[in-house]
Model the fold of this input.
Amino acid sequence: MSGFYVDSVLGALPSGSNALMLTVLLTPAVAAAFVAVTRRKRLAEAATLLSAFLVAMQVAGLVAGVIAGGELSAFGDFLSLDALGALVMIPIAGVGFVAALYSINYMGRQYERGIVDDKHIVRYYAGFNVFVLTMMVVPLANNTGLMWVAIEATTLVSVFLIMLYTTEGAIEAAWKYLIVATVGLSLALFGIVLFSYAYSTASPSAAGSAMNWTGMAADAKMLDPAIVKVAFVFVLVGLGTKAGIAPMHTWLPDAHGEAPSPVSALLSGVLLNCAIYGVLRFNIIASGTLGPSFPSELMIGLGLLSMGIAAASVYFAKDMKRMLAYSSVEHMGIISLAVGFGGFVGLFAALFHIINHAIAKPLMFFASGTVSQRFGTKTMSEIRGIIKVMPITGALLLVGGLAIVGMPPFNIFVSEFLALTSGFAGGQVLAASAMILLLVLVFAGFIRQLVPMVFGSPGAAESARLGGAERKDDMGALAILPMVILAVLVVIFGFYVPQPLQTLIREAVQVVQGAPSS
Amino acid sequence: MTTLLADLITLSAAGLLIATFGVVVRRSFIGWVSAYRYQSVVLAASTAVVGYSTGFWDIYAAAVLTLVVKAEVIPRLLVRVTSGVEGDLKMEANPYVSIRLSVLISALLVALSYGLVGQVLASARLDVLAQAYLPVSVSLFFIGLFAMVSRRTALNQVVGLLIIENGLFLFTTALTHGVSLIIEVGILADALVGVVISAILLTRMSQTFDTMDTGSLEKLKDD
Done:
C-alpha cells in the first residue's frame, strides 16, 4: 500500500503536482476502509499514522507546487488549489499527523481504562481518517457547492467522533453540535446559492459552472450588489456558526470539551480554519462587488463580539477543555478582526494567525488530555501542581498557555501584534484599542487558571488520586513527542518565519486582495 | 409558458405548503414522519416540474433521487431506528406552543417569507419558477426552524431539520435550475448520513436519559 503511494508521490512531483490532489484525498479514504475492514486496534493505529504521514508528505508536495508554480487544478476546474487553499492544507496535514501520533497513546489509555472498547477504537480511527479527508476537500474544492457539502460532512463525521463516548455529556454535546451546526450551514447554503445565482445572471462565463469560485471571484464586479449583500450575510452567519464566531459559537465549548482530546485538537486547530477559510473565500467576492467597507465592518464587529464573549467565558470557566474552547472563540475573533482591518499587514496577520493558532491550540489540547488522564478530572480547581507530578507536560503546558494568551516571545504574539498594527495603521483606532483591552482580559482570566494548575501544590484529595504526589509520570513518550513537536514550532515561529511559509502567506494575501499571483 | 405548466407550478408550490402544515398540526412522531413523506413526494414532483420547464435531464434524476431517498429511505429509517424507543417518549406531552397558536405563527411565517423574498430579491429579475418556489422554500426554512424551537422532543428537531433541508433543496433547484447534479447528490447524501447519525444519537439519548425532552439536555454549562 505504502509503496504505491510513495511511487505516485515521486512520480507526480516532477510532471506537476495535479495527481497529488487526487492521491492526497485517496490516502485517508483507503486508510479508513482498511481500518473498517481489518478491525484490529494495532493495525488501525498503524494505518492511521501511516496515512497521516503520507498525507503530510503529499501536502508538502502540493504546497511546494503552489509556491513554485501558482494555482494547481484538476478535473477541469472542479478541484483547485491556490496559495490560500494551500495555507489551510498545511494545518490539516500537520495537525492531522501529530493528532494521529498522539491518539495512539491517548486512545490506548482510554482503552486500557475500559472507557472505550475494540469497537469504539475501530470507529475512532475510521472516523479520524474520514474527518481528515472531508476537511481536505474544503480547500481543494473550487466548486462552492462541493465545498459546502464537504463542510457539512465534517460536521457529521465530527459528531460521530464526539459521540464515541456514551456519557450524558457527550450525547448532549453531540446533539447540540449537530443541530446548531446543521441549521447554521443551511443558512450558509442559502447564501452560497444566492452568490451562484448572482453570478449566473450577471456573467456569460457562468454557464455550466455557476458555482465555481474562480469564476465568481473573477467577475465579482459584475454581480448584483443587492443580492451579494444578502448572500454574504447568510454565508457569514452560516459559516461563522461553524467557525465558532460569536454569537453563533454556542455549540463549540460543549463539542470541544466533550470530544476525545485528539479530536478536540483537530476540531479547534483545523476544522475552525476550514470554516474561516470559507468565510474568506466569500469575503473576497463580496469585497469585489461591494467594496471592502461592508464586509470589513461585519468582520470587525463579529470579531470584537467573539473576543468579548470569550474573555468573559474564559474567566468563569471551570473545565479545562471548555476554557481552551472559549480561547478558540477568542482566536477566531482575532482572525476575523484582522481580516476586517485588512490591508497587506492585516491579512498577513490573519493568515499567519491561522497557522499559529493551529500550532498552539492542539498543543494545549494534547497537554490537557494527558493531564486529565493523569489527574482523573478536567475540573481546573482539582488540578494542582502539574509541574511536580508531570514535569515535561507541565513545562509544555506552560509554554502553550503563555503562547495562547499572546505572550512574547511566542508565535501568537507576533500575529496579534501585526493585527494590532494594521488596525491602528488603518485608522480603526477604536476597534484596535478594544482588541488590546480584550486581549488583556483574556490574558488575566487564562493565567489566573493556568498558574495554580501548573505550580500549585496538590491537596490531599489530589495526592490520593494521583497515587502519591511524588510519583513523576508523564504518561509515556508517545504522549510527549507530539507536544514537543508543536512546542518547538511555537517557539521557532515566535522568532522566525521560514522563507517558504512567508512566501506562501504573501501569495495568499494577494489572493485575498483579489490579485491572484498566477 | 403554457397555462398547464403555470398551473402545475402553482399547484405543487401550494401542495408543499400544505404538507408543511401537516407537520405543524400533528403531535406524534409517526404523524410527523408521514407528513414529511408527503412533503417529499410533492418536492420530488416540484423538482420534476422544474425539469420539465427547463428541459435539463439531470433535474429529473434529482427528482427521482429525492423520491427514493426522502420519501422512502429516510422515513423508513427514522421509523425503524426509533422503533426501540417507547411510544410515550415519541409523543408531545406538554408542548411549549399549542397547535392553534403554532398554525397561526406558521401562517405568519409564510406571509413573512413572501414579503422577504419580494423585498430582498426586488432587484433580481426572477423567472416564473423562482417566483413560485422561492417564497415557499423560505417558508419551509422558517417553519422547520419554528418546529425545532417550539417543540420539546428531540425527534421533532430531526423532523425540523429535514423540513429545512427540503426548503434548501427547493431553493437551490428553483434558483440555479439544478445546474449541478453532483452537488444535489452531495446534499442528499449529507441529509441521509445526518439522519443515520441523529437516529443513533436519539436511541442513545432515550437509553441514557430515559427521555427525549431536550429540556434535559442542559448539563453542560460554565456556572
